[in-house]
Amino acid sequence: xxxxxxxxxxxxxxxxxxxxxxxxxxxxxxxxxxxxxxxxxxxxxxxxxxxxxxxxxxxxxxxxxxxxxxxxxxxxxxxxxxxxxxxxxxxxxxxxxxxxxxxxxxxxxxxxxxxxxxxxxxxxxxxxxxxxxxxxxxxxxxxxxxxxxxxxxxxxxxxxxxxxxxxxxxxxxxxxxxxxxxxxxxxxxxxxxxxxxxxxxxxxxxxxxxxxxxxxxxxxxxxxxxxxxxxxxxxxxxxxxxxx
Length: 244
Ligand code: URA
What we know:
Elements: E1 2-3, H1 4-9, H2 16-24, E2 28-30, E3 33-34, E4 41-42, E5 49-51, E6 54-55, E7 63-68, H3 84-88, E8 98-99, E9 107-114, H4 117-124, E10 132-139, H5 144-152, E11 165-172, E12 177-184, H6 191-198, E13 203-211, E14 214-215, E15 225-227, H7 230-235
Parallel strand pairs: 9-13
Antiparallel strand pairs: 1-4, 2-3, 2-5, 5-6, 7-9, 7-15, 8-9, 10-12, 10-13, 11-12, 13-14
Bound molecules: uracil (URA).
């Protein structure tokens, strides 16, 4: 059971203070009866709650896929930079979302945003070995020895990387740039950039296109975001996704 004012504040009807006023004004009903007590207890999944005559659909957890643009940081709050949470705008604030892991300020692509802490924890746990797929544009031409070094594990000084898969997609001699795909199962700070540095290459552009079962869908342009589909949510169930 939950207090009605909490349910309404968590479904975007306003601050606690605002929803209390709504309740006092007789705008809220539970199972067909107007209630005026903001401490009224409801079962948000079973009771029929309406506000301003509209059904209130309560969920504890929210899941969004963002195609992160460049220039914003993977944090919830920051004094200097715009964050991925600022990017969504104030309408989403009540969901208390946070990014699952980090992409660098200049990295684009798939970022999961949720308020489900245990799910985030499991997706980020090294033990889970969730694979992450990146498209990287790098300087120079990728060689077989680079591919072998990625497969073997690279010594980055403070740690040795898990075996990863580097695929050379295309080389442009004019620009001396290679388009590559990298699959890693960990996610240390600047990991992909540091791995290329270790074989003498610089990452010029980096985009994440996959994380575990989630892929960056074609319909999501850079900067766009949407809620996960039911199929996508289903695919996360083994990592501890909860609907309610
Ligand atoms: N590796 C990096 O170097 N940067 C990212 O943003 C993600 C992986």
